[in-house]
Amino acid sequence: LRGPFNKAVPIIQKIESHNHKAYFVGGCVRDLLLNRSIGDVDITTSAPPEVIQTIFEKVIPVGIKHGTVVVVHEDIPYEVTTFRTEGVYSDSRHPDTVTFIDDIDKDLERRDFTINALAMDLAGNIIDLFDGKEDLKKGIIRTVGDGNERFKEDPLRIIRALRFSSQLGFEIYSETIQQMKAVQSEIESLAVERITNEFEKLFAGKYVKNGLEYINIIGTYQFLPIFKDNPSLFSKIPKTIQPLASFGEVIALLHLLENNISISEWVKSWKCSNQVKKDAKVLVESYNYYETNGIDEWLVYTLDNRYYEGFSRIVNSIHQENTNHKDLHHMNKQLPIHSRKELAVNGSDIANIFPLLQKGPWLQKMLTDIEKAVVFRELANSKSDIKEWIKCNPPEAN
Ligand code: ATP
Ligand code: MG
After folding, report:
1. Which segments constitute the Poly A polymerase head domain (predicted)?
2. Tell me, what CATH number does 380's domain have?
3. pLDDT mean values, one per 10 residues, the chain (398 residues)
4. Among the atoms of ligand 1, which is closest to the Cα of residue 153?
5. Within a domain: residue 362?
6. What pTM was estimated for this model as a whole?
7. Residue 216 contacts residue 236 (beta carbons within 8 Å)
């Protein structure tokens, strides 16, 4: 067993020692078989949550009612979920009722897609009741059971199908596509956060073009916040889009495609965090500077280097260019200063040169002008050079 699984072995062993069944399940088994890097290792078990709580020391009761707790083992959190069947999802968030059961078969049956309905025991035996392994080999996303019913039960599965097509580059089974089409108007009843959460992964997917192409073909955009009121907007997403690692990048790109829809509107309609809003603002601002000036020292200087990669992805998505964030980091290293604090003069130095002038906006402007001149290497960062420069460029009378 590969690394992340190895670390979880003691959890399964312990559950088994209490005469319950336990398996690795879902995404981690799928990714193991695909040789993809493994995210979270999830465990499914016949033991009820109360039992898990008593046999492990560190347990976080994240969703006892639904049979999910998090077991923390050697500082790594594992979702441990009791075998269950589900009732209807009347709040489009959680099933109204769940019934704990003793058998894994019915638990696998409630899962969304055949490729996600795989379980594995400690010996590495795979339980595959719905030909998930075959679908993994063929690269196909197909529902467990009748898609019409499964999508109606939880319309989020429609978005999840698209998300997996974007992450894995898989084809969606033709019947599944028809069923997604038939049910997709119901995604409007979902809690928006759930949609956003899946879309964040969709836009970050290695095969994002594949996922977006399906959204286009199936017409899912007609039922998404904002897109549904701007039907031509979705087709404006450039065909040259690259995987976008953060949702701030996504919002920035969407706003740049249609300036009439503000960042705030996107953030509100898609229920994003303040961090996403801030990231989007920073990225849009730097992109707009880039549109008129290209990549220059001032852009590299003013943009926090945490954003270099995201900025490059946006530029490359829109212009199909090859802006490399490494070049930005290299340019940053060559800059004569990295912040205003490194300037050889400060505000009071300048104010002292003009004792008769009241402090005011002119001072900020002058500091910025000096900063720019230094960053562009038109002016050396020394007190005497800067004072000389100030004499030649006195503050404008106002
Ligand atoms: P990732 O690697 O992105 O975490 P994942 O397959 O683990 O992918 P999760 O959202 O973490 O996806 O869900 C874990 C598992 O739970 C899935 O593999 C699937 O078996 C099941 N599952 C999750 N959401 C649903 C749903 N809405 N309907 C049915 N089964 C679901
Ligand atoms: Mg997961």
Report:
1. 22-142
2. 1.10.246
3. 89 97 98 95 97 96 93 97 85 81 94 98 97 98 98 97 98 98 97 97 98 98 98 95 98 97 98 98 98 97 98 95 91 97 94 88 93 97 94 77
4. 28
5. yes
6. 0.93
7. no
